[in-house]
Every structure is written in C-alpha cells, then in structure tokens.
Amino acid sequence: MIVIPMTRGHLAGHFTKAQQLAFFNAQGQLQQLIDNPALGGNCADKSAMLNHIKQQGAQVVIVNQIGERMLGKLLDAGISVCRPKERNSSLEQLLLAAKDTSLRLLDTSSARPSLHHQAKGGCGEPCGCHGSGGCHHHNTTQSVLLQSKQYVSEAHFSGFRPQK
Question: Nearest-5° angle of CA 140, CA 141, CA 142?
C-alpha cells in the first residue's frame, strides 16, 4: 500500500497538514481516500493518523516535508518514506517515485526539526517525552488535570488594562 498525503488533489506541502490521505495499491489504483485525522494538530490526532496508516498495511509513504518525530515513527514501524525530486509531480510520477529506493529518507536528519513539539516542552503530557523517543499519551483524569494546570500556569494575558 502506498500513502500519499493530498491537498487540493496534489502532494501536500507537509505530511501531517494534508487535507486527505490517499491509499493506493501496488498497481496504482486508489483504494481509500480519508480526511486526515492529524488536522487537529495535537499528539493524539497525529497518533491516530499514524495508527490508520499502519492498520492499512502501508509500505511506502510519499512526502514533500515531514517532521523528524513523525518520520522516526514511520521508519520505526517499518514503513518506507519517499520524497520525490519534484514537488509538483503528477500522480503517476508520485506512484513511480514510490518504487525508486534512491528517493527514500533513511533517517530523521533528512526531516524538518519538530520545533513546535520542543517549544511546548514535549507533548504537554506527564509522560516525559520532551522531544525524545516518542509521545506516549496516558488518557487518565490525572494527566488531563496536570496538563490543564500547566496551560493555566503558562497563560499570558495581553491587552488588558489593570483595574484602578
């Protein structure tokens, strides 16, 4: 299975920000087209995207840009990641690029740094990921409370005048 992140019918500029994910079989026939579950932008949404790709038996993902954390997770799952030479390639060219092993990304150094993740101090969960090894969500009441306390303590208000 080949996965192509699509926006307006073309290869998306960034993997997790694609509008849709298109799943093709080895013969280049569209098998499934879904709305991208990662569009919410949080760790859980991106995990849902990754899980769906794995569940569909993806072997190759074609990307233009991808973050180092997501690239690492795809590679760890045994999924090849391919970056075509030209961003505006036709669908046929993208499917051919999926077979070209010279276009494969082999390690996270060829990806974009996950700046937003690190700027947030990791995922915001008490799992201690802080940019290392992956994000492990714990959907417990305690972690939700700890996360909400963190956001409240980091809140900055601007544009308000002090009351006299």
Answer: 90
